[in-house]
Amino acid sequence: MNDEIKELLEGVKNGNISVDDAMHQLKTKPFKDIGYAKLDTHRALRNGVGEIIYGAGKTPAQIIGIIDTMKESNQDRILITRISPEKADEIKKAHDLTYYEDAKIAIIGGIPKANGKGTIVVATGGTSDIPVAEEAALTAEFLGNNVKRIYDVGVAGIHRTLSHLDDIVDANVIIAIAGMEGALASVLGGLAECPVIAVPTSVGYGASFGGISALLSMLNSCANGISVVNIDNGFGAAYQASLINHR
């Protein structure tokens, strides 16, 4: 898309296309309407990252159609989140992709070489938080970041957290993922000088209210430098972490 815009501007500069015609093309190209979806073809130009497909609620045929349109718009690397194994198998019949079952993520075009400024640490309170953590870790890698995974280091055994102190203090951004009471974010926020992005998960017994308890704990943290995303939103945390890591 950037090459296409550059070519258009060069055409204006060289007198091969009028300013009015160029304006018309720019106004009519920001999205492609394929009936059930309107693909934002200018997102990479505006935000640095192209469209990302949220797979839940979409049929395999719809996702295939969206992928086709994205590729027609020169987007060769595509991330699909919240996609079931069954949908991934159907899409594989039309497009070459890599599927990560824990994260429920599919990637077309591979993971690029990291170009972020530092390391994003993805830490979980427990093993049960790993599916959300893998969504975060793979999204961050897809966006061009070096990722360090530190799993099952919750506060029930604080020595496990402290055994990774070097990774924690050297991180450029930390994504702290925890259910139950969500205390991991506060602990990491008290140890690290970098931003900490807290992700509450829906892991826990009845009084955890499907992640609301962890969400409220993280929002009420007394540690400084913590921001909080929605319950189970590993993708959102990774996107924010990538923006920080590329500043």
From TrEMBL:
<dbReference type="InterPro" id="IPR000031">
    <property type="entry name" value="PurE_dom"/>
</dbReference>
<dbReference type="GO" id="GO:0006189">
    <property type="term" value="P:'de novo' IMP biosynthetic process"/>
</dbReference>
<feature type="domain" description="PurE">
    <location>
        <begin position="118"/>
        <end position="247"/>
    </location>
</feature>
<protein>
    <submittedName>
        <fullName>1-(5-phosphoribosyl)-5-amino-4-imidazole-carboxylate carboxylase</fullName>
    </submittedName>
</protein>
<dbReference type="Pfam" id="PF00731">
    <property type="entry name" value="AIRC"/>
</dbReference>
<dbReference type="GO" id="GO:0016787">
    <property type="term" value="F:hydrolase activity"/>
</dbReference>
<dbReference type="InterPro" id="IPR039476">
    <property type="entry name" value="P2CMN_synthase_LarB"/>
</dbReference>
